[in-house]
Amino acid sequence: MKKFDFLVCYDIADAKRLSKVAKTLEKEAIRIQKSIFYYLDGSVDEIEELVKTLEQIIDADSDDIRIYRVDKHGSFHLRSGIDLKQPNTISTTLPQ
Q: What is the pTM of this model?
C-alpha cells in the first residue's frame, strides 16, 4: 500500500471543538503551527479514517479542515486537497 505525507490545516469556530480536533491530530501527526499538522507516511485508508473521525467532531457549517498530500520531494499537490465539506474529493484525486 502506498504511503504519503499530508498537511492538515484547520479553522474551527468553537473552542471546545477546536480542542477536540487538536487532541485528535496530536495523536496522529506532528504539530507545525497552532492549526497545521504534518501527517507522515499515511495510507489513503488511514486518511479516510481520520476524515471520518474529524467529521464527527466539527460543525460542517462553521468549521473548515483541509488536508493536502505532500510529495516526498517537498512539493504540494494542491489539487489533492480534501475539503471536509466535499469529502468525496479524496476518492477521485489521490492515487490508491
A: 0.74
